[in-house]
Amino acid sequence: MKEILQKNLNYLVFFGLLILLIFLKIINPSFIKSISFLSFDLYQKVFAEKKNSQVVIIDIDEKSLGKFGQFPWNRTVFAKILDKINESNPKAIGFDIFFTEKDKQSPDELIKSYGLIPSDIAELQDLKSPDDIFAEKLKESKSIIAVLGSNVPSHSNYNRKAKARFLSKGGDPKQFTYSYPYSIGSLEVLEKNVKGLGSISFLDQLDGIIRSLPLVVQFNKKIYPTMGLEMVRVGSKQKNIYVELNEVGIQRISARPHKIDSDPNGIIWIKYKKSDKDQYISAGDVYDGKFQTDFFKDKYVLIGASAQGLFDLVKTPLGVTIPGVEVHANVIENILDQSYLVRNPNTYIFELLFSIIVALITFILSQKVKPKLSLSIFFGNILAIIIIGFSIYKFRSELVDMSYPIFIVTVTFLTGLYFRFIEENKIALDNLQKEAKLLKERELAAGVQKSLFPDISKFENFIFAKNVPARDVSGDYFDVVRATPEEYFFTLADVSGKGVKAGMYMAKASSIFRTLTNLKFPLEKVVFGVNNELVEAKFKGMFVTAVFGKLNIKTGELVFINAGHESILTFDQNKNYEYIKSEMPPIGIVKYFTESMVKSNTMNLKDKTFVVYTDGVTEGYLKNGEELGAEGVQKIIDGMSDVTPKTIVEAIEKELNWGAEKLRDDITCMAININNTELIKKK
């Protein structure tokens, strides 16, 4: 009876908790939204794409401020920049800039500022205003000027009208769009001569990150398109923007031939692409004509500021801060590529129902099955949620909130775990004992492994190598064996897998290699023997990618074999680089029936340096979060003045092993150069 009561109480507690969690999802407080945003941002970070070449940004940067002085600049500067751009016939030109006041160099402003006499005034009035000059250039170009929503009146708030004509189907979009009573823009003489007016209004964000923006917005009871949409309209030579509505609100917005699905308020979620410096060009360089004649041809050109003092920097889901103008560049690319993100209202219902179903399954099974299995089910559910979320994002560009299902499943699982605390505590104790034993074994294995590496200081004048394990036991290996006073065998290898098993496999390969090289067998026979012995050893599913070599330090002759390993890097004294790819499968997979199956290469090292490394080097993270890659190895060598085997290896290791986080993989690198032959002989 007591057990039945306890069991029913468990379910009552669970359902009470479930109702509370559902209620939190429905009211959607700020902390729930913030957690959801984190999952949305994760999608973008994982699947961030490179920018296309359709959008160019003319940057008002520090360099430009140094050239033209404090902002705002004379309008004639922008007039000349427009002339330069128009020579290439761009699709459209957008100014993410306000020209709210008359140019200080205009006749009217000079008269006001300096109290001039009538004769001076007459002469000045005959001069053309910089604003008029700029307005003429705007009229000759496919230009769009920014407009910003405001809750307070401003001196730039004349009765402006949108350039785009809005045609709606299914209702009036004004009742659904975000609205501002006033707007901030530019001088009337400038706005009347442009082809479009584009909103640069961002929505208030909980954490300051710009994730979405309205494609259409209402100022002074008039509808305006966002800057990106307006530029696409002008660039597509369209007069109209079409808005389709249903009973809920706005459904679709079109600047033909481009159609964009939005939320009921006309908002889209921006799909950011990786920032690209090549997308930017300094305003000063454009002014001076320092660009290719067709640089702006058929491009969407945005003019905005990255200079710190102009305060137009925003945060993005990619975890970086970018100029505000780049947000509009991303919107343009989203529209052109149809790559914008969607937050479907029906997805909200799906998330809620899916969460309830998974929570019920998790809780019931946690009470019915063994603790270990319930843990597997829990992680399986988490993995399923993540896969579903990422798959929908990848293939449909839809935002699914992974955080709420994960949160509710986690709470459900922990609740079930609490009801089985005693049993789980026992399991946890057993696991701790097992982990302690495993740790001891790994420490022992690590000590044994270190003893297998050679004393590289004996050879460092012409060959140097280093291994930095990502864990206690490395799956990488290198060795150098002196066969004669002038001949040396060497190898660098990467064992598949990690941990103790990989270390044991490596030790086996090391033993075979040393045995065969000590017998002074030819290199082909050494590799033949190592491969066949490892095949016979029957380490299930394991193999070795390796480079084997035999070096004569007197003649410089190098015989080497690349068995499924990373490409070998060689370079001469002028740092001309060459990569030598593998021509064989990895060691330990297929048994060799004859020594002729082993393919060797020969080269002379008298004027070259030979560098070989594991994939832990090329895939290792730099301080900026990027992978080193093969090009990164070249850059390191290019930046070195003292190029020796030791300096090369230590420089690469320093770039990757910078201590901020755990290595993702073992780092092993070897470099060979025989220029120090005299030192070698003395040693």
What attributes does this structure have?
3 domains, alpha/beta, 21 helices, Phosphatase 2c, domain 1, 5-stranded antiparallel sheet, flat
Structure summary:
With 683 residues, the protein is of the alpha/beta class.
Outline the structure in words:
This protein has 21 helices and 28 strands. The C terminus is likely disordered. Strands 1, 2, 3, 6, 7, 15 and 16 form a seven-stranded mixed sheet that branches. A five-stranded antiparallel sheet has the order 19-28-27-24-25. The chain is flat. With 683 residues, it is of the alpha/beta class. It folds into three domains: 119 residues, no CATH class; 232 residues, no CATH class; 230 residues, Phosphatase 2c, domain 1 (4-Layer Sandwich).
Structural class: alpha/beta
**Biggest sheet architecture:** 7 strands, mixed
- Number of DSSP E strands: 28
Q: Could you estimate the helical fraction of the residues in percent?
A: 40-55%
Measured between the Cα atoms of the first and last residue, the distance is 86 Å
Dominant shape: flat
**Number of domain units:** 3
Strand content: 15-25%
Radius of gyration: 34 Å
Question: Unreliable segments (pLDDT under 50, ≥5 consecutive)?
Answer: 679-683
Question: How much is the average pLDDT?
Answer: 85
Please give the count of helices: 21
